[in-house]
UniProtKB/TrEMBL annotation, chain A:
Cited InterPro entries: MetI-like, MetI-like_sf, Phosphate_PstA
Name of this protein: Phosphate transport system permease protein PstA
GO CC, one annotated term: plasma membrane
Stretches assigned to the ABC transmembrane type-1 domain: 66-269
UniProt source species: Aminicella lysinilytica
Automatic annotation (TrEMBL), chain B:
Coiled coil residues, start to end: none
Primary localization: membrane
Keyword hit for Transmembrane helix: yes
Protein name per its UniProtKB record: Phosphate transport system permease protein
Keyword set includes Magnesium: no
Organism name: Aminicella lysinilytica
Keywords from the UniProt entry: Cell membrane, Membrane, Phosphate transport, Transmembrane, Transmembrane helix, Transport
Gene Ontology MF terms: phosphate transmembrane transporter activity
Compartment(s) where it occurs, according to its Swiss-Prot or TrEMBL record: Cell membrane
Lineage: Bacteria, Bacillati, Bacillota, Clostridia, Peptostreptococcales
Residue ranges of the TM segments: 12-33, 63-89, 110-130, 142-160, 256-278
From TrEMBL, chains D, E:
Subcellular location: Cell inner membrane
Protein name in the entry: Phosphate ABC transporter ATP-binding protein (PhoT family)
Listed PANTHER family: ABC TRANSPORTER I FAMILY MEMBER 17
Keywords: ATP-binding, Cell membrane, Membrane, Nucleotide-binding, Phosphate transport, Translocase, Transport
Keyword Translocase applies: yes
GO cellular component: plasma membrane
GO BP annotations, alphabetical order: phosphate ion transmembrane transport
Matching SUPFAM superfamilies: P-loop containing nucleoside triphosphate hydrolases
Domain named ABC transporter: residues: 10-251
Organism in which the protein naturally occurs: Aminicella lysinilytica
Amino acid sequence: MNKLSAYKGRPGSLALRIMVDLSAALTVLVLVALVGYILYKGIPNLHLDLFQWTYTTDNVSMMPAIINTLTITFCSLLVAVPFGVFSAVYLVEYAGRGNKLVKVIRLTTETLSGIPSIIYGLFGFLFFVVALGWSYSILAGIMTLAIMILPLIMRTTEEALKAVPDTYREGSFGLGAGKLRTVFKVVLPSAVPGILAGVILGVGRIVGETAALIYTAGTVTGVASSLLSSGRTLSVHMYALLSEGLYMDQAYATAVVLLIMVIIINAISSLVAKKVAGKAA
Amino acid sequence: MNNSFKEKAMQLVFLLAACASIIAVILICVFMFGNGIPAMSKIGIVNFLTGTLWEPFADVYGILPMIVGSIYVTVGAIIIGVPVGIFCAAYMARFCGPLQYKVLKPAIDLLAGIPSIVYGFFGLVVIVPIMKDIFGTSGKGILTASIMLGIMILPTIITVSESAIRAVPESYYEGSLALGATHERSVFATLIPAAKSGITAAVILGVGRAIGETLAVSMIIGNQAIMPDSILSGARTMTTNIVLEMGYATGIHRQALIATGVVLFAFILIINLLFTLIKERSARNE
Amino acid sequence: ASLFTACGNKSDSSSDSSGMTGEISVVSREDGSGTRGAFIELFGIEVKKDNGDKVDKTIKSAEVTNSTAVMLQTIKGNEKAIGYVSLGSMSDSVKALKVDGETASVENVKSGDYKVSRPFNIVTGKKTNAAAKDFISYINSKEGQAIVDKEGYVSEDATDSYAKSDASGKIVVAGSSSVTPLMEKLAEAYKKVNSDVKVEVQQSDSTTGVTSTIQGVCNIGMASRELEDSEKAKGVKSQEIARDGIAVIVNRSNGLSDITSDQVKQIYTGKITDWSEIK
Amino acid sequence: MIERNVMDKFTINDLNLYYGDFHALKSVNLHLPAKEITAFIGPSGCGKSTLLKTLNRMNDLVEGCKITGQVMLDGGDIYAPKTDVNLLRRNVGMVFQKPNPFPMSIFDNVAYGPRTHGIRSKLELEEIVEKSLRDAAIWDELKDRLKKSALGLSGGQQQRLCIARALAVDPEVLLMDEATSALDPISTSKIEDLVLELKEKYTIIMVTHNMQQALRISDNTAFFLLGEVIEYDKTDKLFSVPSNKKTEDYITGRFG
Amino acid sequence: MIERNVMDKFTINDLNLYYGDFHALKSVNLHLPAKEITAFIGPSGCGKSTLLKTLNRMNDLVEGCKITGQVMLDGGDIYAPKTDVNLLRRNVGMVFQKPNPFPMSIFDNVAYGPRTHGIRSKLELEEIVEKSLRDAAIWDELKDRLKKSALGLSGGQQQRLCIARALAVDPEVLLMDEATSALDPISTSKIEDLVLELKEKYTIIMVTHNMQQALRISDNTAFFLLGEVIEYDKTDKLFSVPSNKKTEDYITGRFG
Ligand SMILES: Nc1ncnc2c1ncn2[C@@H]1O[C@H](COP(=O)(O)OP(=O)(O)OP(=O)(O)O)[C@@H](O)[C@H]1O
Ligand SMILES: Nc1ncnc2c1ncn2[C@@H]1O[C@H](COP(=O)(O)OP(=O)(O)OP(=O)(O)O)[C@@H](O)[C@H]1O
Ligand SMILES: [Mg+2]
Ligand SMILES: [Mg+2]
Ligand SMILES: O=P([O-])([O-])[O-]
């Protein structure tokens, strides 16, 4: 593809090309090493026992954790996505451009995205678990995670909304459509792929989160029977297995399942994105 | 009439949603500041920020080593992660064929989805021994953590930069080619500068991730609460300080840990403010 | 070098064949952790000042971790490292050293020959419901303590058998991650004898266990340390349900198999920095 | 001069418009007759688009845009507080310089307006879409691909689609801002023919750079310079015997 | 007919171009004289831009674009494997339909090309920038704001800046693809004047929709239809006595 002769007399371009290729190779290498490591450590430890319906200290099943992960991921998105998207709509479509308040919101939300999750966990514990009296429950976990990914969803949605050409808005207004209709029928649909990218990042954070959940959703090993009962996600499960060094093997097996789950969730998301984008284009 | 009512109602809903975000922000701030500020004032802000000793058993709380540790590690992560990330984003947006892209794109999404605890163990089992053999130290330390974080911020930087580069009008690229510039020069001298605001956003997000990362770092940095004297020496960051001791901390010790979180918050706020200022200045120049 | 004589008489130990040299990588647990507390106290790393305050003399350059798994992995991966870990978490991947000639084992802890151990406490508040009381009585029963023994921890003396009460309902046990594995075993066994009470075990950390008890979020807290006075003032009290021995561990390739408590102290206070100084 | 007339669609009285500090329209007085084509011409930046936008209040969207004076549509002030802006924009349709179809199917594009205004019945929508596309002289080209995305059309087709979209809400006025400048001569010619037909039913106001175009199809022409109306007259008259020296200079430039 | 000549800049022999299955250029044979202005006219989609792009191989960027036949520049086949494409594009500059200045300062825009080709000396760059801006007849307007962003310029200024940018690398040929279609008449006129001046030193090939423009400034005109060259002749001749019926139809259409 890249004939070396094309770079004759252009050492700068050649150097850039090498850097680019190296960086891409390095990224792939890192991924291969990571995935290889997980598979190498985990696959030999994958047993059917790990997928029984109930957890005991003998089978160390991760099945309840898998179910809880799906529940918590879904419900957190259910809370965070509407709030995040609506906030972004307000910031981009309704608030005036020079609005100082908007700047403050943007700054603080962005800042929140760098706060370590243990702080969210402690906050969630004091606020949802204790003050609101929800005790250790996946609801407390869901709300904490929703707050945690809110800045992410808001930001990506904001960027996606800003990227929608003004001509669409003008076209819609020009037909006598109100702001609301313009936003829902023209602007938001065009922004869906961007919003979904934010959702994917959010899912990544939810699925990978531990600290914020330990203090809120708790670490009960069974399937949460209601929103107000406790349950652990796969990551928490893995963390719990690792922490005392007693179940290292099972923890690695969990990592494999976690990896597969991330792959599946990503694949579904990008499929949805394609579908929506395909409908628009 | 019915319509205009709906308009008003929904505008209110949007406003309320935005307010909910603000309320969440405020709640967390209240929680952090409420717990952190009393400790800071008891310890003395200056002592707290500039003290080099962290001895909870003696009620001595100085977090300068952690501040320095956080800065070292974050800068290290940027030095390692940002160039690789941007080059890789350029590769994905402008150099690779559709086949390579099909492989690379999900791979990078996958990198983003791997929990940090897995990164941490990977670092502990794979990177630490390598560093140990190369440098003859214990293998844990600032450099190791920087490499790990450099890797962990890659997906963020690559994803956001790639879409920023893709968003640059094709006409810039064509204009450059038509002047006889090579493909590489066209990408790096026109597309990437034109995408700089998006790339800056990517870097900010990456910095946020790096400075806020806890679990993985705590496994491979050594966590010594001392002023680091080289990039190979062990160190403790603000986040690892919090997560490390929170489990047993009570009273003022606990508050001091949350106060560390407040300082972290202030740090990220300052970084974001600086970036905003730079952005606004460069926007004004245009 | 002065230590040379201190342990030179133990000709049967393999220490002289160790041939280890190089800087010692000292690994410790985080400040405040129960494991670290017991460790520094028993090895005299913690010094009492005249005014009664205690000072932790652990050298500042010691690596710190708050996770047993990281401790094990670190020692496993670094032949020059030394650390300590709960007996219940000991694994073959590392080597436990005899301390002053005594093997780190449950029997030795129980007999008092091996001194390094820490308590596993449960914490209860003012209002402990019947179900919680029933579970606690199970833990303290012969049957309960048999499980403690079986899981490799040091049991308390127990004479009474468990007698099922008519208590029922759900109880939440929350706190220390170190106590959690044992508590899970206890809860499972308890379920077999009293299925009317459902026990949920929440693993986090000792402080959260105590806080949760104070806040009424859980019925029973778990802590691997003693309660602070400030916590007791809030109306909770603790009770020891088991002890956990603490083993001093090194890399498997380390030729050493025996260490004196004084050497441990010297290493952790930075007086000894090289393996060659230990013979 | 064009006589004021009760039949005038728009009457603009002493209109001033500011973008922040910038005075973009200066005391504009115009009256635009119904069912005729009025062209706005003038060099770039003279305020043609700005004036056009004031006629359906699209300038409301521009931050920092202030207005004094009056714009009357059928005798009612469109800037009065009680004006329903959405209704106004429904009555005063707009076609933009760059065709801007929505990223949805051709059918949905045309049906967007009617749906906005509450028409839900499928049958009715189908009728409206067909009629609008026929009126926009593009039905035959598109009738087999109504479900396809509008973004796949050529520029000329997109522009006619946008016209159809505007017609579908059944407006009284059609504003066209350089609606053909992005198109090739054949597409342009089609759209000019279309505009001449539409004149039967609609009042049309168009901005154009192309003086031949103004000459070819418009009834009245207003010439703008730096935010002022320099001359406003019957098109034939303005191009043949301009009464103002500046107008003459502009139209007799080498582009005349 | 225009005689073939050894002085011809470009000689195109039996050129066919396919976008995938679509046959966009059909057996094109043309020879474009040096230091003259050649115009390509024809309805939209007839292949004007496509042919223009083959002349500096910008079509290399289009996926699935295949070529047969020959394009000779000064007697050398530009599609030969050993051709240095970057050098070719340096010699054959291009100005696009929509002005596309880079988002950097005016100075940096013009200096971009020279810097690309290794000129680093500040003094030398300043000289080149001034000369190019002078040649593009825009020096006086911009000399006080060279450090300002080029995006702040008006459309006409931007387009002349893009011409200056193309001139700064000292090309032999200038390709212009509807370079004035986005501009107002005054800017257009300035650029036309400029092109006529540039003819002294450069070979210019331009695509235009505007037949008056072709007539006003070009020496030769090629008329395209559906990917074929229908007629190629001296401009005067082609417009006054077209030899092909189709040409006549096109230029005597209502747009003639
Ligand atoms: N949103 C805005 N903010 C500030 N100034 C503006 C804005 N829109 C237009 N202007 C200025 O107002 C003047 C009139 O602009 P307008 O777009 O109406 O010109 P025009 O006659 O349509 O020109 P063209 O033929 O180039 O489209 C110009 O000087 C322009 O720079
Ligand atoms: N990248 C492409 N892929 C497929 N077909 C293309 C591509 N580019 C152009 N075409 C087709 O090739 C034909 C010639 O296109 P070209 O852009 O050369 O036309 P043109 O004469 O420049 O038209 P216009 O005056 O509208 O610019 C058109 O039918 C067009 O649809
Ligand atoms: Mg305009
Ligand atoms: Mg073209
Ligand atoms: O370390 P812990 O015993 O507090 O979990």
